[in-house]
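Researcher: I'd like a structural prediction for the single chain below. Treat it as a standalone chain; there are no partners to consider.
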Amino acid sequence: MKRYNGDHTALGERRKNEFRTELGRRIRKLRQKRRLTQEHLAEQSGINAKYLGELERGIKNPTAVMVGKIAAALDSPVCSLLNSLHERVCPCSDAADIIGKLLAGRERREVRKAVRIIEALFEDEEA
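Model: Treating it as a single chain, here is the predicted structure.
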């Protein structure tokens, strides 16, 4: 028998709204850090600029595919958008978070250089 909990729906809606709002803030923050306009990020993501604006304001709820497209256009891992949204949504380690923050906003060549350096540190262990 199903029991009715009067504020279960309200609590669920509040969490969804908080999630959308925080996700939108993270998208906007990364977009601005990379000095992209909404129009440019929308074009790179293959979405409408108006829709991106609604995502950033927490009005719309993106699909997982949409979050993936936006993260790719921001040249950022999906977990950089989802981590710490109420709970750790994806299993990024603390080290990966720190490295991600250090590399955020860097040019691709700088990121590739950092990856080569990290790979060189562990070359002996792979053999």
